[in-house]
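Supplementary Text 2. Reproducibility record for the structural model of the 95-residue chain.

All settings were left at their defaults, and a single model was retained for analysis rather than an ensemble. We include the record here because the model underlies the residue-level annotations in Supplementary Table 4.
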Amino acid sequence: MTGNKNVLGSDLAKVDAHVVHPHEFDEIPELTDEMFDRADMVVGGKRLSRGRPPKAAPKISTTIRLDPDVLDYYRSTGPGWQSRINDALRRVAKI
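Retained model, structure tokens:
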């Protein structure tokens, strides 16, 4: 390292010392409902996840070797072919 302690390339002490004046508030965008909708919710210092809740028994990604004709058959059946392979294996395993 060259000995330059200013790694970020700015003077953070100067930034910290800056006092925001009333005329500078015009530069700050108005907060909209859309911004709040995109914001992360934090409770107790932990970010709450969005979307679908996690499954109790999530599927596990794995690698399996299949004969080309078997793979071609399932792929030709369209979207969801991996789930159909899973269903066929489940029926054979009787679980």
